[in-house]
């Protein structure tokens, strides 16, 4: 399955140890999603649409209320790159 370039970037970041945190409003709806690198830096090109697309592909998941991490399926979707960018 082919995935977009933006999906690839996020999945590479997460494969290296990154995570996604979500923030909910008072009605428990997802208000915003933030993607962090393994060093704790915020990734600027991430939005709710991209989050929902990765979740729909089952490339990311959350367990026991912890931040979202890459799944085995997500690792298979990521194509390897020489410089890992």
From TrEMBL:
Pfam families: YjhX_toxin. Belongs to the UPF0386 family. This is UPF0386 protein HNR26_003747. It comes from Rhizobium rosettiformans. The lineage of its organism: Bacteria, Pseudomonadati, Pseudomonadota, Alphaproteobacteria, Hyphomicrobiales.
């Amino acid at each position: 399955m082919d995935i977009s370039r933006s999906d690839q970037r996020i999945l590479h970041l997460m494969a290296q140890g990154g995570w996604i945190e979500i923030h909910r409003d008072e009605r428990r709806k997802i208000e915003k999603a933030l993607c962090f690198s393994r060093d704790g830096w915020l990734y600027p090109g991430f939005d709710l649409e991209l989050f929902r697309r990765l979740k729909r592909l089952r490339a990311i998941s959350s367990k026991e209320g912890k931040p979202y991490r890459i799944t085995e399926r997500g690792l298979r979707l990521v194509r390897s790159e020489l410089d890992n960018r």
